[in-house]
Amino acid sequence: MVYRAPFMYPSHDLSFARVGYVSDTSVSLLIREPDSKQLPIFVSYRGVSDTSNRGVDDSWKAMGKTYWLSNETDYTFTLTIKNLEANNRYQYAVSNNHTGYFTTAPSVGYTAPGTDKLTFLTSSCIKLRFPYNPLSHPLSMPGFKHLSSWIPTLKASFMLFLGDFIYIDVPHRFGSDPETYRREYRQVYNSPDWPSVSQDLPWIHVMDDHEIANDWDGNITAPYPAAADPWHLYHTSINPPSVRPGASYFQFTQGPASFFLMDTRRYRTPSQPFPANSTEKSMLGAEQLSSLLQFLSRREPEGVKWKFVISSIPFTRNWRFGSSDTWAGYLHERQLILEAMWSVSPGTGVVVLSGDRHEFAATAFPPPEGSKWPVSATVHEFSTSPLSMFYLPTRTYEEREGE
After folding, report:
1. Which residues contact 143 (CB under 8 A, 6 or more apart)?
2. Which of 249, 311, 340, 347 could form a disulfide with 296, with the two C-beta atoms 3.0–4.6 Å apart?
């Protein structure tokens, strides 16, 4: 179990393509091809006619090409197709025999025709071949099998994956160099179960600790640079636009909702030795905190009724295990954010989505009694995980006063 996949399935020959962020006018694609015989690689796309859109242009259009791929990018490259139309289904094709489909988002402030809602998925925490089955493929992902059975029914627009896409240190760390981290990503994408959850479902990502090291609070010290190498190659390269150049936190609006994807690992100060309510501690760093507060205070376009704040770790302090690694260990900064959330314009709901805990919990954060904020300003958090990892049979969540 421990050694078979790393040594027998390094996935150097992985060839695949996947969809990342899809807006109302564009799509981001990631392509990996290590076989030089497949070069140059050409990408094309076309509209797909269906019962709701019979007048779409279904002629193939050349979009981009690359003549050279190398180990510098782990043989990957990204491509953005622009000038698409909202609410349209498209097919892309790559000359190395990969193809797939995607549907552009509705225009900002609107929902897709025939529905009054936006459906998306959220989860975190996956580990190949867990729970262990000696008869299963070394790169199997049981959680993907369960998810794939729901995708046709839910018809979700995208997956918000909230971290722990790999477990570099479970059950054993094999190295701290970029190639060791790259191999973990390749193995997930080489899983026989990956296509079933990605062919019709774009994935958007945030990072958590196990992409670096357990309970990581070391900022950008080693091994963060090695861990960030494949994280950027495989994930941020096709994520929504970063808020600032070079930043690893992201922001986008889709239909009736806007999203802020926090990075709770790269910019944080260590959780020790300062107490949880210390003003010297920061989860986000000054620039990211400023960007988040601006996101919360800005007035949204007409039709946008929800603000979603995405956190790889729980926002609540109700977890009784490992709470110092969560927002429970950074209470001063959390309070600043809560007050900004309570101050959001009336008529716009604020929801926090988080993962990490291997348990589900729903938490309400009402404003203090007698404060300037009405009860209707209550913020809600939904924490859900794991997608394919162990769950905790004994609850570690317990309600505290005020949330």
Report:
1. 126, 386, 387, 388, 389
2. 340
Candidate from 92-96, 101-105, 168-172, 396-400 with smallest mean pLDDT: 396-400
Tokens of 363: 């938490």
Backbone angles phi, psi at 350, to 5 degrees: -120, 130
Closest Cα partner for 306 from 365, 340, 350, 261? 350
CA distance 332 to 385: 26
Phi then psi dihedrals of residue 335, to 5 deg:
-65, -40
Q: What amino acid is encoded at 253 in this protein?
A: T
Q: Span 136-146, mean pLDDT? A: 95
pLDDT in tens, 255-283: 999 999 999 999 999 988 899 999 999 99
CA dist., res. 240 & res. 216, Å (int): 24
Residues 299/343, Cβ–Cβ less than 8 Å: no
Distance CA 87, CA 125 (A): 31
Going by C-alpha positions, the residue among 308, 304, 291, 390 that lies closest to residue 354 is: 308
Chain length of the chain: 403
* Per-residue confidence band for 11, with pLDDT thresholds at 50, 70 and 90: very high
Residues 6+ apart with CB under 8 A from 134: 1
Query: What's the CA gap between 330 and 284, in Å, rounded?
Result: 10
Q: Has this prediction a pTM greater than 0.85?
A: yes
Dist. CA 183–CA 38, nearest whole Å: 22
Indicate the DSSP class of residue 52. T
For residue 151 the two structure tokens come to 């995708």
Angle, in degrees to the nearest 10, between helices 331-342 and 286-297: 20
